[in-house]
Amino acid sequence: MFRRRSRPQPSDPFVPVTPTVPRAPDPTPVLPRENPEKARMRAERRLKFTASCFLLGFVVVGLKMGAIAASEAREPATGSLSGAAIVSQRADITDREGRVLATNVTATALYAQPHLMVDPIAAAQGLSVIFPDMNAETWQRRFTSGSKFFWLKGNISPEQQQAVHDLGEPGLLFGRREMRLYPNGPLAAHLLGGARYGEQDVRAAEIKGVAGVEKTFDTYLSDPAQEGAPLRLSIDIPVQTAIEQVLSGGMRLMNAKGAAAILMDIHTGEVISLASLPDFDPNDRPRPATEGDPGDSPLFNRAVQGLYELGSTFKIFTAAQSLELGLTNSGTMINTAGPMRQGRFQIRDFDNYGPRLSVADVIRKSSNIGTARMALDIGANRQQEFLRSLGFMEPTELELTEAPGIRPLVPARWPDITTMTVSYGHGLSASPLHLAVGYASVLNGGTRVTPTLLARSQPPAPGPRIVSPRVSAESRHMLRQVVIDGTASMGEVPGYQVGGKTGTADKPKYDGGYWEDRVIATFASVFPANDPKYVLVVTLDEPEINAAGEDRRTAGWTAVPVSSEIVRRVAPLMGLRPDFDPGRDDFGAYLTQAAAR
Amino acid sequence: MRGLLYTLSVFAVVALGFWAYREGYETRATERAVASLERQIGERHQELSMLRAEWAYLNRPDRLHALAEMNFERLGLMPLSPDHFALTEQVGYAPPDVPNPLDDVMADDLLEDMVSEVIIMNHRYGADVAATVIAPPTLADDGEQLP
Predict the structure, then answer these.
(1) How far apart are CA A552 and CA B66, in angstroms?
(2) In Å, how far are A225, A265, A323, A480, B38 from A526, measured between CA atoms?
(3) Is the CB of B125 inside 8 Å of chain A's CB atoms?
(4) CB-CB contact of A520 with A309 (8 Å)
């Protein structure tokens, strides 16, 4: 292509040869001068074209910038796994070992769009056959009323879904959603509370907590930022099961109409188990009763909401304060000659315990007179201060919706007679949970605990000091004597050194005064008493049992056997090793354990 | 020369366009695949949570309690009580192996003939043991042991 062509050689004389000498070039014709007007026009056209190109470019860029500025910023859909990570809109609730207490499962909702229906009347009749609670006439009227949308059922079973499919009605449609499931049924029902649907949509429905933990931690559980991390409670399912089982058996045996039990870690304040009977199934939470006593409803949490006069269980607080103030020691003799008169009131003991008892024996035999005398020495102000420091004047800090509203019923005025009655637990109503907190605070070495339902990863810092470690050890030793040979002798569980105090209080009538034959029997205990680990409070509502030839209502015959069975079942479950060494009950062992801590 | 350059550029433009379109389609296909994978992951998560719920439901304490009672003869499970704790010294370890004097005397099959009538009371475990079916005492229609 680019090779030079070879010049042709003259071979034929008759062929003219191209001359090698170049000819003079033809005179070039002078171009006629271009019309200057035309050239200007052309230049102008070109310039305009270029300018319009630039203009177009700038307009495109400007438009794009405007579009970006005006539109909402959004990440590109690809690449993020957000859709896969957050599956359920509400986090699970687990016990302290991670066993599921509440979770979500997919469910189907049924709704109707009457304008899409082929035969609304047949649809209404078919639905009334599948769902017996749906009235055919009512739904016929609604389907033909001209409305375009009805929710029919929030949650139907696969069988019901198939039956509705079989109706072949295009106006009956299904929506997908999640449903809150409590796989353990009524276990820990009062703690979990329950859930219901909030905002509903065809594609999804919002689940909202109604009561208990579900309501307290509603925002946490439905917070997408948690990425479905479960809420770990301090409850232990096997322990809770055993306690509910024993408690319901004991409740039936003692003919009680209600019962409550709280098991709490004495140092951390973690509630290991909290039971209240009768209970309910949170999967099918009953409606609050509109009539009758709300305290008799299964929804009522006796352990947290029930305010009772807890009776003689309070005596240990009086004794501990007296010891702490140095007014007495455990051997000081107290005058218990009765009956004791104060104004127009009279204080009696269950039995006549003789003219004098030591402080330890006042607790062991549960002498009202002895406690009242100690309380008079302490005085009203110091007694109130002490009870306030134990939390008996305020609602508890437990993370339940019900807890903050439950303020103990404290007498408005505090004359000497109140000081005396409160010293043995009458005239001041508190919940069993308050009692558990009080016992834990006095007996764990003397620092205030805060009750919690959340599993703690590390032990909390000790709270403010209530009593000295020595007084705490002495109190435990006194409580231990109550079980060894006192009012709670049925509470002995070999190997676990249970120490505790019984309390029997007459129930107040609604119109003032007290019932003769209705009591609240309470047993508050600590185990093992020499090295305390757990506090257990058992309360029975109106127990009555015919034992040893007569009807018995006192806590020593009702709450104590139930409590001891609970300890026997539950302590091994929590890995507490029984210790049968009789030397554990020496006071020295109590002191060394307190010092070691 | 110029014509050639033009031709090449046109080809290049066509090729680039083709490439760009192909990349575009590939991206969209990948996006679709990712979306479907995400959907699958979501479904798997949902199945997983469903299975977890079912596991929790089947392991609810009521049911385990009832099952333990139904199978009490075979399992002998009791609620844990304080007397179930023991010291390490109380653990009954297996006695040391005593050499069997018959081993030297008799051949294995001869021994087998002799003891074939004897019911062997202690169970052996291992790969060479014949599989035995342990039938649950009662079965529901769907094969699940009630409750």
Answers:
(1) 33
(2) 41, 10, 19, 9, 53
(3) no
(4) yes
At B81, the amino acid letter reads S
Q: Does A57 touch chain B (CB under 8 A)?
A: no
Compare CB distances from A572 to B56, B65, B81 and report the shortest one's residue.
B81
Q: How far apart are CA A117 and CA A143, in angstroms?
A: 9
CA separation for the pair A402, A577 (Å, rounded): 35
Consecutive sets of 10 residues in chain A, 597 residues long: mean pLDDT of each? 65 72 72 84 95 97 93 62 55 90 88 88 89 88 87 86 90 88 91 87 83 90 82 93 93 91 93 92 85 80 89 91 90 82 80 84 88 90 92 90 87 88 89 94 91 88 89 91 88 90 85 82 91 93 84 87 93 88 79 64
Residue by residue, DSSP assigns A27-62 as PPPPPPPP-HHHHHHHHHHHHHHHHHHHHHHHHHHH
- Tokens 């083709």 sit on residue: B18
Q: What is the largest CA-CA distance in chain A?
A: 171
Question: From the CA of B82, how many Å to the nearest CA of chain A?
Answer: 6
Beta strand ranges found along chain B (DSSP E): none
Establish if B87 touches chain A: CB-CB under 8 angstroms.
no
Among A573, A245, A102, which residue's Cα sits nearest to residue B66?
A245
Residues with Cβ within 8 Å of B111's Cβ and at least 6 positions away in sequence, in order, are: B102
| CA B131/CA A268 separation, integer angstroms | 51
Q: What is the full DSSP assignment across A393-441? A: TS----SSTTGGG---B--SS--HHHHHHHHTT-S-EE-HHHHHHHHHH
What b-and-e string marks burial along B83-112, b requiring 16 or more CB atoms within 10 Å of the CB? Answer: eebeeeeeeeeeeeeeeeeeeeeeeeeeee
Cα–Cα distance measured from residue A554 to residue A542, given in angstroms and rounded to the nearest whole number: 10
**CB count in 10 Å sphere of residue B44:** 12
Alpha helices in B59-134 (DSSP H): 61-70, 72-75, 102-105, 108-115
A565 → chain B, closest CA residue: B81
pTM of the model: 0.77
**Are A81 and B38 a contacting pair at CB < 8 A?**
yes
Q: What are phi and psi of A547, to 5 degrees?
A: -135, 145
CA A362 vs. chain centroid, Å, equals 40
* Collapsed DSSP state (helix, strand, coil) of residue A137: helix
Residue located via tokens 């957050």? A86
The answer to whether the CB atoms of B61 and A241 lie below 8 A apart is: yes
